[in-house]
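Researcher:
Attend to token order:
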Amino acid sequence: MLHFIVALALATAARAGEPPADPAALAAEAVDANPAIDALENRVAQLDELADVAGIWPDPVFALEASNLPVGDWGLGDHMMAGLQFRVQQTIPAPGVTGLRREVAEARREVASASLAEARLQLARAVETAYWRLALVRRLRVITAEHVEITDQLLGAVRARYETGGAGQHALVRLQVLRDRLIDDVHDFDRQDARLSAALREALHRPPDAEFATPDALVPVPLASTDAAEAVRSWLEAAREARPALAEQRAAEEAAKLEARLARVDARPDLTVWGGYRLRTVDTPTDPGTDLVSIGLAVPLSFVQSARLGRGREAAALEAAAAAKSRQDSVLDGISADLQTAWADWRRAVDKVAAYDGDLIPGARRALDATLADYRVGKAPFESLYEAELQLLELQRARDAAAAETHIQEAVVRALVGQAAGTGENR
């Protein structure tokens, strides 16, 4: 049963030699296929359509009126006041209003477009992060399964000493507990594998049986710059230009300023003009029934109320613009802090992998082999053997965790500066 579990863990991790998936390609697929992104794209398309018609004038009005009909007759007859009135009326917006309405609508579309770009960026980051966490889980499962076999070897050595009276029963029990705990860890890694795979399937809108192959070994991503200030300054400059979250706040500020201008201009009264033609049917010696025409101009009388309302809307829009500017500064401060943290985490992970690969893990392997050899001939206590095994296990796990962290931090930095997955421009 034990060997079956170990073989299953190893076979699952290796994925039968299937080449590992490209996390950048997975991220791009998620951006193209995720329904939540589709919904945001539909919202942008909706605002685009509204922007195209934002500056259109109101429809003209055509009226047909049979006026001044005698009560009880309800016919034009020859009453001198009766007639058939045709009227066309058009409301003309104040100068500049239609153009500003179009600009405001386009600015709102820009805000939505930047929000969509930020959502795409964060989805790509989440997919890459989940992929590398999945790769780490599978590597930890392989390492753990290998140590189950190592523990079996140690059990054989302890059992031989126990049978000759050179070791106590507690040594056997402790190793058996360690082996069982490692087997249980393998099952935990299986569960984490299932959860991360499910998250990737959801993000990519894939079927429940979709699988994601991961690399058999985790190679760390190096940092191009070893100077924190230089790296963060370069990244921050790129973020100012490319980060959609900043572009969203800039667009929101511009949209609010345009709304302020629109509120000021929109407070001006709209003019309404009309023209009419009156068809008369009367024909008397004193009134030959000449047809009449009329033209008119109407202006709202609520100048005080409209001006007050316009000033209030303008002031509110300017406050919204100030808020967007403050949010822009806040987002930039957050990006700067997150970039500093990402650089520190990335650098530490690179250093840890180098230290573990260079001296620590090879030394721990030699220590375990030497301690096992000494234990077999009675020159090393069981505690030293037990600790040597745990130390090697912890170092191998920590090494791969650090290697995976370099990939995760690379994805974090790309998202922070607003660059697409797979560009490799952030290192």
